[in-house]
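Technical annex, item 7. During the second reporting period the consortium partners agreed on a shared format for inverse folding records so that results from different sites could be compared directly. Each record opens with the tokenized structure and is followed by the designed sequence. A conforming record, contributed by the partner at site C, is shown below for reference.
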């Protein structure tokens, strides 16, 4: 993991078992932005993201990211990016995900 001040940049291995890719954020370290990209080498490496707190990710239920797809949220006027736990699962054991948070 690489952390530059308040910025986290990391490539994660995502497998067929749901895992926590980001912990719930609490005051004062609120998440202002997060960027998730499926950087897997194969088209079959479909990653599903769960933004349902402590609920494990389930394949094809939630935010489904095919190879090179991106999901991002940023706090802006009238919108607060997700502060809860983020979970991920892959259709294969070979998933790769880039995550950027600040």
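Designed sequence (site C submission):
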């Amino acid at each position: 993991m690489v952390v530059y001040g308040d910025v986290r940049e990391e490539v994660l291995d995502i497998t067929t078992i749901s895992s926590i890719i980001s912990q719930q954020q609490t005051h004062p370290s609120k998440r202002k932005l997060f960027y998730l990209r499926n950087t897997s080498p194969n088209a079959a490496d479909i990653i599903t993201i769960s933004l349902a707190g402590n609920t494990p990710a389930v394949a094809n239920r939630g935010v489904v990211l095919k190879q090179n797809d991106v999901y991002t949220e940023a706090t802006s006027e009238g919108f607060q990016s997700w502060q809860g736990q983020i979970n991920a699962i892959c259709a294969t054991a070979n998933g790769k995900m880039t995550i950027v948070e600040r």
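The first strand starts at residue 2 and ends at 4. The mean pLDDT is 90. All partners now use this format for quarterly exchanges.
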